[in-house]
Amino acid sequence: MSEEQTVTAPEPKAPDQPNIVRTRGVKKIYRMGTFDLEALKGVDMEIKRGEYISIMGPSGSGKSTLFNMIGALDKPSEGKVYIDEVDVAQLDAYELAWLRCRKIGYIFQTFNLIPVMTALENVTLPMIFAGIPTDESIDKGVGLLERVGLGGRVQHKPLELSGGQQQRVAVARALANDPAIVLADEPTGNLDRKTGREIIELLRELNEENEVTIISATHDLKMLDVSDRILWVQDGKIERDQKREELDLDVGQLEHDEENTIE
Amino acid sequence: MSTQVATVGTIEKQISLPLTEAIKIAFRSLKIRFWRSLITIGGIFFGIAFLMSILTSTAINGALLEGGSAQVRALLEQKGTDAEAGVQQIWLVTLSLLVCAVGITNAMLMSVTERYREIGTMKCLGALDKFIVELFLLESAFQGLVGSLGGVILGCLFMLLSSMSSYGTEPISVFPLYSVLEYGAYSLGAGLFLSVIGAMYPAYRAAKMPPADAMRTEV
Fold first, then answer.
1. Rounded to whole angstroms, how far apart are CA atoms A92 and A99?
2. Residue B92 burial by CB count (10 A; 0-12/13-18/19+): exposed, middle or buried?
3. Which residues, 6+ apart, have CB-to-CB distance to B8 below 8 Å?
4. ipTM strictly over 0.90?
5. What is the mean pLDDT of residues A56-62?
């Protein structure tokens, strides 16, 4: 039980940081044959630079759709998404690619490493896309892999690494171009409890060290007590916007319940 | 502690990738799927070997009719062989090359489907559509090059040997090196062209794939 307490609750972040993500009346409508499915029904929210945000919600709640909007991976049917106060809808393909390369780092549930490349090559790939010279990108890639605790596995292929190690490579890759935002989609979804906790701690540390904004879609209740803020998505809307301090009591209870059900 | 400054509203344009990087990545993708790319290479290999054998036999027969001994010329005329490829042969070659191109398209489409997530991930990491197209065309062009080169050599050797079995050493002494080399270059070009044409639609489809697909877990 003592090991479970190692994630220390952080100090609340200064509220005077600029907005890194802002949405205004975001709607997304999918055409499903004869009827329209409204996946998002008007979402307004702000995320400050340096925050650690969890987006919680059941599948089908519109969580993933909202996530794709924030990540500039999809465009809203109505409304606006601003990343670093730039309207994403106004960007052309080259600017979008630049945004994805430099401003946002992505972490996936299924790790999504390129199987033919070594850990180091996976980490340097976004730097190659950014036009950084090879020597520089290798130095930085090795540094990042050391930072996530994989200094000795630089030349391993993804299949030679465990799930937790693969996700660490993915974290290093997400940080390759010093993004302002790291977007993580269920980063612990394919990991066991202990490994999942390690990844969450790593993300929290990186959030504090680099002041990188972390936005994570998750079901994982362990994620709640490191988050500064939790956005509960339900039925295409943000149902609740909770700060961590408002939540401490509930989480203890939830963690307790979770342990009872699993062990 | 922080190295980031609030740089509001600075979005630049993504740069294109150096060709050498694309070649490296394409080559590795082929290496990891060695046996399957070998099958694709096999398709183009036999197609081009057929084309080259027809062209070589035409060239050798032409040279024999011109510079061969009276005996060989008589044999050739008796068989009714002339220095031009027949309509039927051209038709067969065209068909086999078409089958070849369709085979390449099929193999590349499979390769795209298989790598949906990989392509989406690359786009999330900042790859431009152009780069994805480049990657697939390079892969296919490389397969085409290896297959055609093999096909040219096999087709040429096979026809030379088959001609020698009928006319002894004479095909070697009159061997039309320049026209065979010229035909070889044409065949190589045809193989390369077909592999690039065949890969165009798959590459386009890969490039147009939305990056959000990489995020989806159920693929």
1. 10
2. middle
3. A18, A84, A85
4. no
5. 84
Which helix (H) or strand (E) segment holds residue A184: the answer is: strand A181-185
Size of interface A-B (CB pairs under 8 A): 120
Among residues A173, A101, A93, A106, which one has the least CA distance to residue A130? Answer: A101
DSSP A36-57: EEEEEEEEEEEEETT-EEEEE-
Q: Residue A263: is its pLDDT beyond 50? A: no
Mutate which: A63, A98, A132, A137, vs B, most B CBs within 10 A: A98
The upper half-sphere exposure of residue B173, i.e. CA atoms within 13 Å in the direction of its Cβ, equals: 11
> What one-letter code names the amino acid at B195?
S
| CA-wise closest residue to B41 among B108, B86, B95 | B108
Give the number of other CB atoms < 10 A from CB of residue B66: 11
A30, β-bridge pairs:
A37
Q: What is the CA radius of gyration of chain A?
A: 18
B95 within a domain of the structure (yes/no):
yes
Confidence at residue A248, expressed as pLDDT on a 0 to 100 scale: 59
Give the Cβ contact number of residue A56 at 10 Å: 23
Cβ atoms of A3 and A259 closer than 8 Å: no
Per the structure, the count of domains in chain B is 1
Quickly tell me which residue has 């203890």 as its tokens.
A252
* Distance in Å, alpha carbon of A128 to nearest chain B alpha carbon: 7
What residue numbers bound the domain in which B155 lies? Answer: 35-214
Residue A234 has which token pair?
A: 């339900």
pLDDT of B41 higher than 70? yes
The per-residue pLDDT for range B183-203, each reduced to its tens digit, is 999 999 999 999 999 999 999
Q: Give the CATH fold of the A2-17+49-75+90-262 domain.
A: Rossmann fold (3.40.50)
Q: How far is A244 from chain B (nearest CA, A)?
A: 23
Q: How close, in Å, is residue A206 to chain B by CA atoms? A: 11
Tokens of B66: 């011109």
> If you search the block for the tokens 């362990």, which residue do you land on?
A222
Structural domain includes residue B94:
yes
B201 found inside a domain = yes
Q: Which amino acid is located at A25 in the chain? A: G
Of the candidates A176, A83, A130, A132, the one whose C-alpha atom is nearest the C-alpha of residue B126 is: A130
CA B154 to CA B208: how far, in whole Å? 39
